[in-house]
Amino acid sequence: MMILLIAAGFGSSARADNRTDTSLFMKPEGSAYQTEIRSKSGDLYLSIGHHGPAVENEWMALRIYFDQKGAIDVYNKARPGLELKESRWYPDAEKQKAGWGADYYKVGKTVGLGGVRLWDGKKVVMLNPVTMRTARVSRKEDSSVMEMISEGVPYKDRKVDILVRVTVRSGVRFADVEAGVLSGGPVQFITGINYHPGLQILKKQGRIATWGVHPEDVAAEKAAVGAALVYQPGDFAKQHDNGSEILLISKSNAKIATKVISACAREPEVNTMDKFVEYIDSHGVSSP
After folding, report:
1. N or C: which end of the chain has fewer CB within 10 A?
2. 264: which residues sit within 8 A by CB, 6+ positions away?
3. Quick one: which of 26, 35, 110, 28 has its CA closest to 68?
4. Mean pLDDT of the 207-217 span
5. Domain range annotation of the chain
6. Torsion region of 86: left, alpha or beta (phi above 0 gives left; psi -120 to 50 gives alpha)
7. Tens digits of per-residue pLDDT, 65-106?
8. In the chain, % of residues over pLDDT 70
9. What angle do CA 54, 43, 119 make, to 5 degrees?
10. Residue 247, CB half-sphere, CA atoms under 13 Å: how many?
């Protein structure tokens, strides 16, 4: 089996002005950072730091849950800067009120923001069970990358190996989310964006955006969150709204690529739905 993976290590060649970072460690909280963690069970949700690998740029952090959900979750910031190495996703209430970011986004059982699953023609297929699940992180010259590799996933009459890669870059609010079949393909992928009652939802050609307060109780205070998924319509066969998430079902393919972005009401420049959508439109992002 051929697997194209990111280089191990945080990268000594990373530029000093690289405004991105990675975070991957096992509990307890004082444990050392790692570049790769593997599990035959495929479920380290309760024993891995912040429930899975994470990456950040100056505006947001993203994590992939290390379990069957495979969802992507968001950590929003009130001011630009790198926080994961000190906050480890959960800064205390005092720090949050002093200007640190927080976990305002509520994923639940959904794909979250751009998470990846499969479609067998009739139903959603989780990337589970697995023969091995691997998380990897790497810090590059001007970007940071996390990958989740799920091996041996039952799909139709065969088993497939699926790679999900998330890349954040310095000076770029949008993160790239890629999913590919390493073995056993092609497949139909599922991705999407979740929502909650009361959130604003905007659908345009090639993008879906939401804005509002998530029912999250981890953060010290509540704040409205904006999230958007940008995609190439030609890659997807249909769209489905199940009442808690808007899902995109791909055509039979070996890979898909989308972009995700998030902001929150604590940011002075992108603190409303109108400003958030205007930012996406003005930066000319119409497809991955």
Report:
1. N
2. 76, 77, 78, 104, 223, 224, 225, 226, 271
3. 110
4. 93
5. 21-282
6. alpha
7. 999 999 999 999 999 999 999 999 999 999 999 999 999 999
8. 93
9. 85
10. 20
The answer to whether residues 153 and 127 touch, using CB atoms and an 8 Å cutoff, is yes
Separation between Cα atoms, residue 275 and residue 260, nearest integer Å: 16
Which of the pair, 28 or 33, is modelled with greater confidence?
Answer: 33
- Are 204 and 134 in contact by the 8 Å Cβ rule? The answer is no
Residue with tokens 């090639």: 206
CA triple 261-55-5, angle to 5 deg: 110
Cα separations in angstroms, 128 against 15, 69, 151, 155:
37, 8, 9, 10
Question: Residue for token digits 């699953």?
Answer: 117
| CA gap 10, 149 in Å, rounded | 19
User: Can you give the pLDDT at residue 216?
Assistant: 74
- DSSP 8-state symbol, 6: P
Between CA 221 and CA 244 the distance in angstroms is 23
Burial class (CB in 10 A: 0-12, 13-18, 19+), 122: exposed
Confidence of residue 14 (pLDDT cuts 50, 70, 90): low
pLDDT in the model for residue 15: 67
Which SS3 state, helix, strand or coil, does residue 186 take?
A: coil
CB 239 within 8 A of CB 206: no
Q: Which of these ranges, 16-20, 124-128, 164-168, has the smallest mean pLDDT?
A: 16-20
Q: Does domain 21-282 have CATH number 2.70.98?
A: yes
pLDDT confidence of residue 1: 41
